[in-house]
Amino acid sequence: MADLINFAHRGASAYCPENTMASFIRAIELGASGIETDVQMTKDGRLVLIHDESLERTAGKKAWVKDLTWEELQTLDAGGWFHEDFKGEKLPALEQLLELASDKDIIVNIELKNGFFQYPELEQKVIDMVRHYGMAERTIISGFNHYSLQECHRIAPDIRTGILYMEGLYEPWDYAKRIGADALHAYMYALTPELVAEAGRHGVAYHPFTVNEESMMKSLIAAGVAGIITDYPDKLAKLLS
């Protein structure tokens, strides 16, 4: 149980504006052993950490991430929507998170946000950045676009990948093996203890999302999952201690 990965979902997003450096730093302070984030690409090819394709919800601008340059994105406030204490927080680049994690015992889960827009060479760019910071062994690349995950495995079979999915997937460990994935990042209600056990026998880990209730955390720990993705890394850290 001590080895279960405590993934902070978009950082400590219950306490800080999601996908900001403030959120990532707070997650580590609260006991996270992993940080989950989302990556997209700017107009000029920079890798930026933001969940929505649109900037409206978290940065207050009616525009797509893909249509603005990095410099333009840095003029936006990505924290004030959450609380005035975070006003002025900026959208971070992937390299900022990797640099933060590189000298700490932290696993980084990078979700590729390329289901709505197909960012050119996103897979290669992310992998190159991960390698630059020496994080290949401590990175998991996940996504709902499973073609993209298979491409990541083709480019870098040494970097782990995780299949994101919402509902029942038949014998998901077999599907994972087909595309070279190492983990199943399932919606928390799409798994059972029996599925977790069978996946484990096939060498495939379960990292369910997004688990915020302590009762569900306890159930999943008892089921034998390898990691839990949560907005409350402090709650999970307390249970694991």
TrEMBL record:
Domain GP-PDE: 4-240
Pfam families in the cross-refs: GDPD
Name of the protein this chain belongs to: Glycerophosphoryl diester phosphodiesterase
PANTHER family assigned: GLYCEROPHOSPHODIESTER PHOSPHODIESTERASE, CYTOPLASMIC (PTHR46211:SF1), GLYCEROPHOSPHORYL DIESTER PHOSPHODIESTERASE (PTHR46211)
Family annotation (PROSITE patterns): GP_PDE (PS51704)
Organism: Paenibacillus aceti
InterPro entries from the UniProt entry: GP_PDE_dom, PLC-like_Pdiesterase_TIM-brl
Gene3D superfamilies: Phosphatidylinositol (PI) phosphodiesterase (3.20.20.190)
